Amino acid sequence: MTVRAGIGYDSHRLVAGRSLVLGGVELESELGLEGHSDADVLTHAVIDALLGAAGLGDIGIHFPDSDERYRDADSIELLVVAVALVRAAGYTIVHVDTTLALETPKLGGARERIRARLARALALNASAVNVKATTGEAIGFVGRREGVAALAIVTVDG
Ligand code: MG
Question: What CATH number is associated with residue 18?
């Protein structure tokens, strides 16, 4: 077996009138993420990391935002499709680590709900999925609450 790693990064703009969905979990927030799908920035980063580890390109190739099928899409459903693609390519997903960069709200108890939601979509134990969060310290687009960014790294065997 050969261990391979994939990295994923995404960011979305924060706007009024949209919900804030992170890792498939909706958080209480006056601002939400703008995008063609549900704009779940964390799940998008995980999808890109998965595709990267398997050498399968990126999220825009598989789920183009020009495609009306993906308007307001539940990104967790896209993640499930990406997991199937990675498995079909002969890889076993081992571990996922993530970092969210958002100023507010604090994740609090949602952290474990996000972890469980991602783990279920990835068909992994929650112990193989980690969710970290950091603020922007009031600087940059994260700190000014203009957007949210996410990073993910996925390890696969294959
Ligand atoms: Mg995205």
Answer: 3.30.1330.50
